[in-house]
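Protocol step 4 of 5: obtain the predicted structure for the target chain.
Materials: sequence only (see below). No template structures provided, no constraints applied. The aim of this step is simply to have a reference model before the mutagenesis design in step 5. Sequence pasted as it appears in the construct record:
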Amino acid sequence: MTSTDSAQNAPAKTPAKDPWELPDVSGLIVGVLGGTGDQGRGLAYRFARAGQKVIIGSRAADRARTAADELGLGVEGAENAECARRSDVVIVAVPWEGHGKTLEALREELSGKLVIDCVNPLGFDKQGAYALKPEEGSAAEQAAALLPDSRVTAAFHHLSAVLLQNPDIEEIDTDVMVLGEKRADTDVVQALAARVPGMRGVFAGRLRNAHQVESLVANLISVNRRYKAHAGLRVTDV
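Step 4 output (structure tokens):
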């Protein structure tokens, strides 16, 4: 057999997947645990405004329903467990102090779900914000340890709650660092980020790299205080 024959009979190579080819996520129900807080409320507003079905979760169902009514846009409010059960994708936006206990209590309801952890373990003193390092390495890795039957990712750490909640702002000009173990899951998170005008999701590694992404929020807080801004991030040349 000639080299030409070998080339003709060789199996065709599968084209490399376009890194920016993302799935359609418009039909997914997005739940936001901690949706009555500033960050969770802001994310709920932006996704609802983009056309997603959104459910706000809280420890108290009445607080969740009040927050949902204030947001409008078809947002619903429910107790955390119900929010987790009814949602396809669940964003964890609870305070760091309650992160572990909240997820541990919802292990069954979050089984099989795509979970997006956006919690930043931070401490504050007279010198400002500083990063904390959980025993597991990061908030996202703690979530993965507590939710072995869930598909845990990390994203939406560096967003200004002030900008997210401002109805006069049409676009959120920022990139979102997305971390996770499976491309199918991070692709969904990137696609959700892309639903918000001005926002782009960028794959940033596996969950073992989540600590430095979470920690960078302390630096952004310092930037914002010095320059009286609401700084975000942009990744260049991609």
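Step 4 remarks: The CA atoms of residues 224 and 230 lie 6 Å apart. Strands lie at 29-33, 53-58, 76-79, 89-92, 114-117, 122-125, 128-131, 151-154, 174-180, 199-203.
Proceed to step 5.
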